[in-house]
Amino acid sequence: MNQKKTLLVASLATLVTFSLRSTESVNKLEKYKEFLQEGTAQCIDLSHWIVPPKSRYETFKKTFENFELNNGKIVVELGATRSFVDGKYQGCLSTNPKYWEPNNPVMWDWGAGSFTRIAAECLCHLNPEFHSVDISSQAVSISKTMTSEFTHIMHFHRCSSVDFLKQWDSQRKIDLIYLDTGGMDEYTCKLQLLEAKIIIERDLLAPNGMILIDDVKNATPRRLHGETSDLGKSKYSIPYLLENGFKIVSDEYQVILAKK
Questions:
Q1: Domain extent for 52
Q2: How far is residue 108's CA from residue 154's CA, in Å, rounded to a whole number?
Q3: Is this structure's pTM higher than 0.85?
Q4: Average pLDDT, consecutive stretches of 10 residues, N- to C-terminus, the chain (260 residues)
Q5: Radius of gyration (Cα) for the chain, nearest Å?
Q6: Vertex 253, ends 179 and 70: CA angle to 5°?
Q7: Count: domains in the chain
């Protein structure tokens, strides 16, 4: 009986330890909650939604939790952070590091989400491989500066997202794929569909992995170009993913998908 009790106590202690450890990425994210909420609100046309979609904070939280609970190893970001500061401040899109204020998040580009920095900071204790991909040398330069504290996990690739996905070793499954290439236009819609097709055809996502897509509920293309779809730049990719073995885990400003 004593041996059984000892084993039970040890098991509970292990469970509690893992439970506490599994929330570390979310604990780190908490200090950016209000910034993410306010930044996302800049992108949402509230008049269109009966129930406004939740902010990037909610979907970052869910994907980071999933990554940690499933012992994730590899993050791939398609489309790096492109500015040190928000568009309302001097230095937007500038590569001059004088505009980077690592200790003053008020200045950061929350309208775009700042995923490169946030994911690197929140997941660094797990020592993952973080691959950030962008065709722009300026974007790569900016993101390298923003993540200089986390160089031990960062891998930057200046190439197209399509080339990167085609060349990735398909035996090394990806635990979190962040789709954020291009702008809010038809070209980007078709590019994201191509990215989704390569991910599926080459079976790149881990069994418990997630695809996180930014700007799905961004109303800009609908207003400016007569767009009628409610899926923003994902109007082709999300239906394709749903038709090919994926399900929606979270449907907010961003959308999270996972394998069925």
A1: 2-259
A2: 20
A3: yes
A4: 44 39 83 95 74 94 97 98 93 95 96 96 98 98 98 98 98 98 90 98 98 88 65 94 98 96
A5: 19
A6: 55
A7: 1
